[in-house]
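We were asked to recover a plausible sequence for a given structure. The inputs and outputs are reproduced exactly as logged, with field labels preserved.

PROBLEM: sequence recovery
POSITIONS: 119
GIVEN STRUCTURE:
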């Protein structure tokens, strides 16, 4: 899976084998070995490759299906719109999330009323 994803992303990001090889400081043939599965890069090289290809090491290693780097959000509203949220391993249903969202909206409206700030 690693070699397939590596080659697929390199091509999708329009990099040559030489460009990625130069980034991690290996010969073109060494990097080609990574893409063909004949060689395995060091963990440090995987991290550098992931940055170069704007992805995560987890994606390259097959631990996730999402190739894009996702920045964590502190916005509760965004988090409540995500699917597959859980609380200590217990899945939260859509109805649960709607209830939490309405409670938070009430808190914000109350705070805005007290502070005189409207958003």
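RECOVERED SEQUENCE:
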């Amino acid at each position: 899976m690693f070699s397939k994803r590596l080659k697929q992303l390199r091509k999708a990001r329009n990099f040559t084998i030489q460009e990625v090889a130069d980034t991690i400081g290996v010969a073109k043939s060494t990097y080609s070995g990574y893409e063909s599965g004949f060689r395995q890069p060091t963990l440090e090289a995987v991290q550098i490759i992931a940055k170069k290809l704007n992805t995560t090491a987890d994606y390259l290693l097959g631990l996730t299906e999402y190739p894009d780097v996702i920045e964590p959000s502190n916005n509760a509203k965004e988090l409540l719109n995500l699917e597959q949220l859980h609380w200590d391993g217990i899945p939260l249903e859509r109805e649960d999330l709607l209830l939490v969202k309405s409670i938070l909206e009430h808190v914000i409206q109350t705070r805005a009323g007290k502070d005189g700030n409207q958003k």
